[in-house]
Write a structure and sequence with these properties.
The chain is mostly helical. The protein contains 16 helices and no strands. InterPro entries: DinF-like, MATE_fam, MATE_MdtK, MdtK-like.
Length: 444
């Protein structure tokens, strides 16, 4: 079975994946923009959304790795023309991951205050963080369910339906945010930061419901749980565990970044919240092409088509860097107006504009790192990803952050350390990939 790796086919997978991927940071960015423009404790609320957003992102990234594991296994079986052998795997994977999400709620809900104190939150910011989290956490099982379904669609080489689900979810969140945060005179009272949390939970529920509908209607996959476990469940769990450790390392990076920014004061954490959410937005835009790499590399590996695998990597690097440069240019053109979308506080805007150029400069480098991240996930090489992220976090990011912080560089310290972290994550993957698959492509 030949696999099409033309630009047209890559875009057919990448553009819907890009749109669906962008919905994730849009949920956070919407909360950031709407909460940041409230007329009641806006800066403190913005800081709380940033702190809780960092923690929830950690939970989603740790447990949301089911998407990559399911996608990798399913796409390899599609490439080998053996899909029937893994039809019951998604339901089993979803059962495991949603059970874990409920456990997370039970463990974290009673200790929300202690958790956000670890992020240096205090006083009003701590109160708002606890209020916001104790509502938003109930959307967690819906989010993980949707992520697992998206992984199944990716394995089936389909990114169209996840895009539809994500568009509806993001649109719902924006509309609900405006209604619930600001209220409607005489109809719905303004709920401020609590309204933003409720809007997110309802949007996540809508996405989970649509995920069930499209998976059952548009694919041969069932959601009926059956036993015994599929023979690939062990490989799935090993992938998840490797990605789990990897994502913990990733979140050590986010924890230190958020904690340091909070420690610098409310204007700094508010500015960091805006900058890091825009960085996530850029990451998820590039992730469209990383998703295409994930989907196609798994299929090519299953088909043992190593020559096309090398060609695919070359094309994706080129497209990703073009996209990264384009985003950096767009950000540069609108440099002085982007911050105003999120806040009118001149002190926060000043701190944001001081470091936003670093976020923009990182985009082409991020493209290479994220695309090869996606390809290695598609190839099922989670152990390599785990080891590299542990090294880049603990031997690059953390030492650089503490050193630059000691020079009193504040937000500069955080974003410069993030840049070196991305470089350390990306380029070793390129070298390892070519070393392994270039000889195989010449032998086939």
């Amino acid at each position: 079975m030949s696999t099409n790796i033309s630009l047209k086919h890559i875009n057919k997978l990448a553009i819907p994946a890009l749109i669906s991927g962008v919905s994730e940071p849009i949920l956070s960015i919407t909360d950031t923009a709407i909460v940041g423009n409230m007329d009641f404790n806006a800066t403190e609320s913005l800081a709380a959304v940033g702190i809780v957003g960092a923690f929830i992102s950690m939970l989603i990234w740790v447990l949301g790795q089911t998407r990559s594991a399911i996608s990798s296994i399913m796409s390899q079986y599609v490439g080998a023309n053996n899909l029937d052998k893994v039809k019951n795997l998604p339901a089993q994977a979803i059962f495991i991951i949603t059970s874990l999400s409920i456990l997370i709620i039970l463990v974290t809900y009673p200790f929300a205050e202690q958790i956000f104190k670890l992020y240096n939150a205090s006083n009003v910011i701590l109160d708002y963080s606890v209020i916001y989290y104790k509502i938003r956490v109930f959307g967690f099982p819906f989010t993980l369910f949707t992520i697992a379904v998206f992984g199944t669609f990716r394995g089936l080489q389909n990114t169209y339906y996840p895009m539809i689900i994500a568009i509806v979810g993001a649109a719902s969140n924006i509309i609900l945010d405006i209604i619930l945060v600001y209220g409607i005179d005489g109809v719905i009272p303004a709920m401020h930061i609590q309204g933003a949390a409720y809007a997110s939970v309802i949007a996540q529920f809508i996405m989970a419901t649509l995920s069930i509908y499209y998976l059952l209607k548009k694919t041969p996959i069932t959601l009926r749980l059956s036993f015994p476990f599929n023979k690939e469940i062990n490989r799935f769990i090993i992938m998840i565990l490797n990605l789990f450790v990897r994502t913990l390392a990733l979140n050590v990076t986010l924890y230190f970044a958020t904690s340091f920014a909070t420690g610098y004061g409310k204007n700094y954490i508010a500015a960091y919240t805006i900058a890091i959410n825009l960085w996530f937005l850029g990451a998820f835009v590039i992730d469209g092409y990383a998703s295409a790499g994930n989907i196609l590399s798994g299929k090519l590996l299953g088909a043992k088509d190593y020559k096309s695998l090398i060609l695919l990597s070359n094309k994706l690097i080129r497209y990703g860097v073009y996209l990264g440069v384009t985003m950096a240019i767009i950000g540069g053109v609108f440099y002085s107006s982007i911050g105003n979308i999120f806040t009118k506080d001149p002190e926060v805007l000043n701190q944001f504009e001081n470091v936003f150029w670093i976020v923009l400069a990182m985009q082409p480098i991020c493209a290479i790192a994220f695309i090869f991240d996606g390809m290695f996930k598609g190839l099922g090489k989670m152990k390599d990803l785990r080891n590299l992220l542990l090294l880049s976090t603990f031997l690059v990011f953390v030492p650089f952050l503490f050193w630059l912080d000691s020079l009193d560089l504040k937000l500069y310290a955080i974003f410069i350390a993030l840049t070196f972290w991305i470089i350390a994550r990306g380029f070793p993957l390129v070298i390892k990939f070519r070393k392994e698959f270039l000889p195989q492509s010449q032998n086939h």
